[in-house]
Design brief:
Layout (H helix, E strand, L loop, with lengths): L2 E6 L2 E10 L2 E8 L2 E10 H9 L4 H14 L22
Antiparallel strand pairs: 1-2, 2-3, 3-4
Length: about 90
């Protein structure tokens, strides 16, 4: 899967590209958790851009990253660090 990593407020995030019917969705993710929908690129738009030497998915990913960094796209807060619990065996 295609992705575009970046850092925001000490968090390692990425714009992940997911294939959907007739195109691709872009999601801002942290680890495997989707935080915010970034947008959609149709197959037709991607092909039209490719014919012009453009990468519409990359262009939208850069726009989404910019929106996160400038606060135009608000993300879910990070998950709290949870210490692993020890399960006692009974028997």
């Amino acid at each position: 899967m295609r992705s575009f990593p970046f850092r925001y407020e000490s968090r390692l995030l990425r714009v992940a590209v997911a294939a959907v019917d007739e195109g691709w969705e872009l999601w801002v993710s942290e680890a495997d958790r989707r935080l915010a929908f970034g947008g959609h690129v149709t197959v037709d738009d991607a092909i039209a851009g490719w014919r012009l030497g453009e990468d519409r998915v990359r262009e939208l990913a850069e726009e989404v990253k910019s929106h996160v960094l400038t606060g135009k796209l608000v993300l879910a807060p990070p998950l709290p660090d949870v210490a692993p619990t020890q399960v006692e065996a009974t028997g």
